[in-house]
Design goal:
Layout lengths: L2 E5 L1 H5 L4 H9 L6 H16 L5 H12 L3 H13 L3 H5 L1 H6 L4 E8 H8 L9 E4 L1 E3 L5 E4 L10 H9 L4 E6 L2 H8 L5 E5 L6 H4 L4 E3 L2 H7 L14 E5 L4 H9 L3 E5 L10 E7 L6 H6 L5 E5 L8 H7 L2 E4 L7 H15 L20 E8 L4 H11 L4 E9 L2 E8 L5 H9 L3 E6 L2
Helix pairs in contact: 2-3, 2-4, 2-5, 3-4, 5-8, 9-10, 13-16
Length: about 425
C-alpha cells in the first residue's frame, strides 16, 4: 500500500513561525512593534494549542502585519536559513519520496514554495493559503475560500483529496492533531525539534524530536542510522551551562545530575564529567552502551583508560585546565558521535575524518593485532561491498578503522564484522 507523509511547515519544516518573522521585518520601524510582536505571538500559540479557532488567529495576525510584497523576499531569505536541522540532514529522503511528501500548512504559498522546493518537494504537493494584495503590493488579506484558512482546515482539505494509502501526519500544532482525531490518518507524530506544545504532544501517537526519529521508527532511509535524541548524555557535577547547551542543541537526550547515579549507567551513551569526580571500574563496566567520556580536567588517575580501551570508550579531557574546555570538550564528544572523529582524544588514535557524501560509514574498534584489516576487508569482499574510502589508525593496543561503503548492506554483514574475534565495538554511523 502507498504511504503519504503530511508535513507541517511552521515550527516543523522550519524552526520558526513565518508570520512572526514577517512581522519583525514589516514592523521593524513601528513605534509599538514590541507590543504587536507579542500579540502576534500570542495569537499564534493560542491557535497552535487549540485555545482559539485557526481563522480567528490567522485573521488577527494578518491584520497586524502591515506587510508588503517587498517584505517577502527578506522573509524567504531568513526562512531558508531556518530550515529545521533534521529536515536539512534528510534532504535525500524528501527528494526520493517527492511523490509521497505533502506540505500541508496554514501558512502561505508565497513564502513556503521557495523554501521547500529546493528539497525536492513538488509544487503540486504544497497546500497552503495565499495572500491578497492591493495595487501597491500591500497584504490586505487572504483567500477565505481556501479550506486551510478555516478552523479544521487540514481535515477539510484532506477529505477532498481522497488519498488512497496509509497517511502519516507530522507537525507541532493542534491543527495537525485534528487530522488524527478525524480518523483520516494512520498516526500523528508530534514534532518537537523546535517547540513542544504539551497540549498537542500528550495526544500524539508518537513524539518525534526530529525527522530522524520519525524515519527510524518507520524503518525509512535516513541520514543517520540512530537518532541522536535516543542517545542519553549524562552530565555529572558542576559543569558550565555552555557545555549543557551545546550538547542539548546538538539533539542529544540530556540528564544533568550532581552525582553519578548508577540507575543511568546501563543506558548512558555519552558521559560529561566535572573536574574532581571519579568513575570507578564497576561503574564503567555497567555502562555497556557508553561511547565517549568528556572530562573537564585531567582524567589521569580518575578514569581507567585501559578499561575504556577494552570497552571501546573514547576519552576527551583537559589536562592543562584551559578556560574554554567547557566548549571544547563537548564539541569533541559530538564530533565523535556525529562523524567518528577522535582528534585530540586521550586514549584513542587521533583521526580527523573528511565529510562523507552518499555513503554509509561504519566504525570498527578492535584490538591492534596483525591481520585484522585483512579479516575486516574479507567480510566486505564476501558481501560484494564497494569501499569508497577507508581510514585506519592505531595507538598501543587499540585499532580504529573507518570504512565508507557505497551500497546498502544487510544485518548479516554487521553480524560477521562483530564476530571477528578481536572486535571491541562496531558502530553504524550513517
Amino acid at each position: 500500500m502507498k504511504h503519504y507523509y503530511i508535513i507541517d511547515f511552521d515550527s516543523t519544516f522550519t524552526q520558526v513561525e513565518a508570520l512572526d518573522e514577517l512581522a519583525r521585518i514589516s514592523l521593524e520601524h513601528h513605534p509599538a512593534r514590541e507590543l504587536i510582536y507579542n500579540e502576534i505571538e500570542r495569537l499564534t500559540n493560542a491557535a497552535m494549542e487549540g485555545n482559539i479557532s485557526f481563522r480567528e488567529s490567522l485573521a488577527g495576525r494578518v491584520k497586524l502585519l502591515q506587510a508588503n510584497k517587498s517584505h517577502l523576499d527578506k522573509l524567504i531569505a531568513i526562512l531558508k536559513k531556518k530550515v529545521s536541522s533534521s529536515f536539512s540532514r534528510n534532504r535525500d529522503f524528501l527528494k526520493a519520496h517527492n511523490e509521497d511528501v505533502l506540505i500541508v500548512s496554514g501558512g502561505f504559498k508565497e513564502f513556503i514554495t521557495p523554501v521547500v522546493t529546493p528539497y525536492g518537494i513538488k509544487t503540486e504537493n504544497i497546500y497552503a493559503n495565499t495572500f491578497l494584495f492591493d495595487p501597491a503590493g500591500n497584504i490586505i488579506g487572504y483567500d477565505e475560500s481556501n479550506p486551510l484558512s478555516d478552523e479544521g482546515g487540514k481535515v477539510k482539505l484532506l477529505k477532498t483529496m481522497d488519498l488512497d494509502g496509509t497517511i502519516y501526519g507530522i507537525g507541532d500544532g493542534y491543527s495537525d492533531f485534528q487530522l488524527k482525531e478525524s480518523g483520516l490518518i494512520e498516526k500523528f507524530y508530534a514534532f518537537t525539534e523546535n517547540i513542544e506544545r504539551k497540549s498537542v504532544s500528550e495526544k500524539a501517537d508518537h513524539i518525534t524530536p526530529s525527522l530522524d526519529e520519525f524515519l527510524y521508527v518507520n524503518h525509512l532511509p535516513r541520514a543517520i542510522s540512530y537518532p541522536k535524541n535516543r542517545i542519553l548524555c549524562l552530565i555529572v557535577g558542576d559543569v558550565p551551562e555552555i557545555s549543557v547547551h551545546l550538547l542539548r542543541r546538538d539533539g542529544f537526550s540530556i540528564r544533568h545530575k550532581e552525582t553519578l547515579e548508577e540507575k543511568y549507567l546501563k543506558d548512558v551513551g555519552m558521559l560529561l564529567i566535572a573536574n574532581g569526580i571519579s568513575v570507578n571500574n564497576e561503574q564503567l563496566k555497567q555502562a555497556e552502551k557508553l561511547k565517549t567520556i568528556g572530562y573537564l580536567g585531567n582524567s589521569k588517575g580518575v578514569i581507567n583508560r585501559d578499561l575504556c580501551n577494552e570497552m571501546g570508550i573514547v576519552i576527551f579531557d583537559d589536562k592543562k585546565g584551559k578556560k574554554r574546555s567547557g566548549e571544547f570538550i563537548p564539541k569533541r564528544m559530538a564530533d565523535f558521535i556525529n562523524k567518528g572523529d577522535t582528534a585530540m582524544s586521550r586514549n584513542f588514535p587521533n583521526m580527523q575524518l573528511p565529510r562523507m557524501h552518499q555513503a554509509h560509514r561504519l566504525i570498527h574498534i578492535h584490538q591492534n593485532v596483525p591481520g585484522i584489516m585483512a579479516q575486516i576487508n574479507n567480510v566486505f569482499a564476501e558481501h560484494h561491498i564497494n569501499i569508497v574510502a577507508q581510514f585506519l589508525m592505531t595507538k598501543g593496543n587499540i585499532g580504529y578503522v573507518i570504512t565508507d561503503i557505497s551500497k546498502g548492506y544487510d544485518d548479516k554483514l554487521l553480524k560477521e564484522l562483530k564476530q571477528i574475534i578481536t572486535t571491541i565495538k562496531l558502530r553504524i554511523l550513517y
